[in-house]
Amino acid sequence: MVLRMFVLSKLRDTLRIPPANLVLPLLDAITLEIHRLFLDKVVKDLGLCVSLYDIQSIEGGFVFPGDGAPTYTVEFQLVMFRPFPGEILVAKLKKCDKNGLVLSMGFFEDIIVPHHQLQQPSKFDENEKLWVWNYQENEMFMDLEEEVRFRVLKVRYPPIPLEQERDAQPFAPMEVIGDINSDGLGLVSWW
Asked: Do strands 175-179 and 111-114 pair parallel, antiparallel, or not at all (unpaired)?
């Protein structure tokens, strides 16, 4: 099985190395700066950066007037989490509400399965606060912390809000929208 949810992305950026890091070997100082700028951050249309793969070239080392830090142009590759539409993944069920399911892969928490993309017929049980799939007269509860196999429908990069309500959900710079409305999808324990 080939995991395509991780891709290599080649970037070229101008990095300012803080004077405090000049005691380190150049490669280590640049690696620290790339980690600080990119690791665990979403780059629009590229995905979530999970790791630095390699540094391919380093140019420059210019110190601009009035600044005690050298600036380098660096070409490097990052390992990005960016699943493609149609890819089948497994995640844990973290939350159920009337809107659908919220899943987590541990390192990525913003996977949404809207209610209309659940196995049909499904209904939200107000008492249990869980979704229930009615399969051949059997009630199949979607329990929290269970593994869920889902298909990626799309990856969204919503615009950054200028203002956010005090009680609003934290902003998610990347969302994976999925569905479980096919044979073999849904709770792993069902199949």
From this structure: parallel
